[in-house]
Design brief:
single chain; Rossmann fold; 2 domains; five-stranded parallel sheet; four-stranded parallel sheet; 9 strands
């Protein structure tokens, strides 16, 4: 609830931003327990989530497909409103990401019996959910646990009050990395503090900060985000934080090579800024050089955010830098994160979860 001392929720968000390093360090200091044998034996995963959880779901898909000999597919939650072909899911493991066990996520969870196994990545527990006055969610979660659903916990429980979330989105990426590292044959070792924590010091380039502070109207109606694979496949939250934090139009995310197949031409016809996200690989350096040269050739405002990390850990730096940028702008523009536009009027979709 808003308080006289923090009517816009900015002090609360500042505290949450400050929690992120400790929350990630805690996850790294206390590695998760071994996976159940049935989970380690799973070969095919069907993964879902929405909001920031869509980024986590797509992140997990990329990690499984690129770093193990298993296969994973992402499905939007609306896919669970229609019957699946007979036995289509029987040999697959359902994976659901939902930080707070939202009603939409329950669409998938209520069909867990159609799958060989179910995994739930969440910050919720029966006790926490019941204590928050959500007995139906607590009962569902307990039923899932009693039926053998494996819980993969990550912080932050009850990250509500504001529209934007900072802690859960960051911790969900680490939970996915730690999960895949425990699968037999994974090509990377369990993540270590020196890999995950240093990128959290990443900051947006000063010229980008100045441009957004001095000319926010140039960005508010949409700009372009360029980033290489695999991050380009799970960059949803990088884009959505401008929408959720500032109520701007979501920037369009393009893979570097996709950008030349339409987005560049549209940007040239109707000029808008471009923000390029770069990791530490030689291929990214080449992509950035070519993109900057191409964009400057048509006089498009271009900014580069360089995170000194390998692709596996660059997402932590991109998230941290853009969190800083969005929060600074939020404060300057006095964006109301407690009584946001449309608050309380979204339940026809947000609360959608018919009984199954």
């Amino acid at each position: 609830m808003p308080t006289p001392a923090d009517p816009l929720g900015h002090a609360l968000l500042a505290r949450r931003l400050a929690q992120i390093p400790g929350a990630l360090a805690g996850m790294l200091d206390r590695p998760p327990p071994p996976l159940a044998p049935a989970t380690r034996a799973a070969r095919r995963f069907l993964i879902t989530g929405t909001g920031s959880s869509e980024a986590h779901a797509r992140h997990l898909c990329a990690l499984i497909n690129l770093h193990t000999d298993r296969a994973a597919t992402f499905l939007p939650l609306s896919s669970f409103t229609v019957p699946a072909p007979q036995a289509a899911w029987r040999d697959k493991t359902l994976v659901v990401f939902s930080q707070g066990l939202s009603p939409n996520a329950q669409l998938a969870l209520r069909r867990h019996r159609e799958f060989a196994r179910t995994l739930l990545f969440t910050a919720a527990t029966p006790a926490i959910t019941r204590g928050a006055g959500k007995p139906e969610r607590a009962d569902l979660l307990q039923t899932l646990l009693d039926s053998g659903t494996e819980l993969i916990p990550f912080p932050l429980a009850e990250e509500y009050t504001t529209l934007i979330r900072f802690v859960g989105p960051m911790c969900g990426y680490l939970a996915a990395l730690q999960f895949v590292a425990r699968l037999d044959g994974c090509s990377f070792a369990p993540p270590r503090p020196e890999q995950v924590l240093p990128p959290l010091d990443s900051a947006p380039p000063p010229e980008l900060v100045a441009a957004m502070q001095d000319h926010p109207q140039r960005f508010a109606q949409g700009f372009n985000l360029l980033v290489s694979a695999p991050v380009s496949d799970y960059a949803q939250n990088l884009s959505c934080k401008f929408m959720e934090g500032l109520f701007w139009r979501c920037p369009m995310v393009s893979d570097f090579l996709q950008f030349a197949h339409g987005p560049f031409q549209q940007t040239t016809a109707a000029p808008s800024p471009v923000l390029i996200l770069r990791n530490n690989t030689a291929s990214d350096a080449e992509f950035v050089h070519r993109s900057v040269e191409m964009l400057r050739g048509v006089a498009i405002e271009t900014h580069v955010l360089h995170v000194a990390a390998d692709p596996l850990f660059a997402i932590f730096g991109f998230e941290a830098a853009l969190n800083r940028l969005v929060f600074d702008l939020m404060q300057r523009q006095r964006t109301d994160q407690i009584n946001w536009p449309g608050k309380g009027r979204d339940d026809l979709l947000y609360g959608f979860c018919p009984d199954t």
